[in-house]
Design brief:
Its main location: cytoplasm. Pfam families: NAD_Gly3P_dh_C, NAD_Gly3P_dh_N. By secondary structure, this protein is α/β, with parallel strands linked by helices. The protein folds into 2 domains: about 5-180, Rossmann fold, CATH 3.40.50; about 190-325, N-(1-d-carboxylethyl)-l-norvaline Dehydrogenase, domain 2. The chain has 16 helices and 8 strands. The protein has an 8-stranded mixed sheet, sandwiched between helices. The longest helix is centred in the middle third of the chain and has 23 residues, at about 180-200. It is globular, with a radius of gyration of 19 Å. The chain binds 1,4-dihydronicotinamide adenine dinucleotide and 1,3-dihydroxyacetonephosphate. 1,4-dihydronicotinamide adenine dinucleotide binds near residues 84 and 137.
Amino acid sequence: MQLQSIGIAGGGAWGTALATVARRAGRDVLIWAQEPETVAAINETHGNPVYLPGVALDPAIEATSELGEVATCDTLLIVSPAQHLRDVLGALQPYVQNGRPLVICSKGIEQATGKLMSQVAADAVPGATIAALSGPSFAAEVARELPAAVTLATGQEELGRQLSHALSSAAFRCYWSSDVVGAEIGGAVKNVYAIAAGIVVGKDLGRSAQAGLITRSFAEMARFGVALGAALETLIGLSGLGDLVLTCGSEQSRNMSLGVALGRGATTNEVLSERLSVTEGVATANAMVEIARGRGIELPIAEAVHAIVTGATSVDAAIGALLSRPLRSEAG
Ligand SMILES: NC(=O)C1=CN([C@@H]2O[C@H](COP(=O)(O)OP(=O)(O)OC[C@H]3O[C@@H](n4cnc5c(N)ncnc54)[C@H](O)[C@@H]3O)[C@@H](O)[C@H]2O)C=CC1
Ligand SMILES: O=C(CO)COP(=O)(O)O
């Protein structure tokens, strides 16, 4: 399959960082951005000062305000916030040509439907060839060409291999996988647990508490993911455990930094109203607990995060409730 040109739908931090990735891998790159000023900045000053400040882009990276133009590329990377993915793909759908891979790079679960991004994509672009790119990768680091390794999942193994080669370069390694659901679930739910880890840091509960929280969060990720059809092998890989470790350990994560602020006494609205960038874990916590309750999956940490971010409970009450749960077998 011809994979020379890469169209990127989304001019935020990650879409822009992925443009640098694709360019370094030798691809021709066109970004669609929603804001005319982002398009102008990429084309005229070769930067994205709003979403990815301080990064000089290769002048060969171009941007457009016409969504249909990116659909002429050999492969499309879809990098909108999760809750806007359906609208972006709906607008793109008339232009998508049969067989062109859609690589979903957004991390989240759709709040209104409880669907994973690949399921939303299948609704919005029926018959599309869908892949997911997920894993521990901060846009600002990737754009600076610091090393990162991610999972590229698609049901068609040969396509996974080709896409991985088309996007990889010295500092960006794509490992292919056939488990799209697993790759997506890890990337979506780690955002919820990063908020929890941030709360632990914001409340100064200590490193032991942080390590315990991350480990029990992984147990929840595995329980939830396997129930939804993910392979455990995927969840212990880059897109699951890998991204959990990254975002639960660095305040560079928007989700973790929200948690830190909550732990220090701020409200969700106070934090989010100050931000242009997306904090996916808030909506995904809601979707996750709805799914879990419907299926009888026990997720005490995700439930606590959801209750805190919606203001249904206080941080102290949620921590107290988690610490007073009955003791149980670790394997259970
Ligand atoms: N920033 C990062 O390091 C990484 C982000 N991601 C994922 O990529 C996705 C996009 O995140 P970022 O690029 O960081 O976004 P961002 O926070 O840098 O920028 C927000 C983006 O949302 C767009 N937007 C706002 N309202 C919109 C609407 N109504 N319809 C369509 N687009 C709208 C803006 O144009 C902008 O591109 C998220 O799902 C995120 O979890 C994944 C890996 C790394
Ligand atoms: O997904 C990410 C890194 O892999 C980015 O995390 P945040 O959205 O929490 O900043």
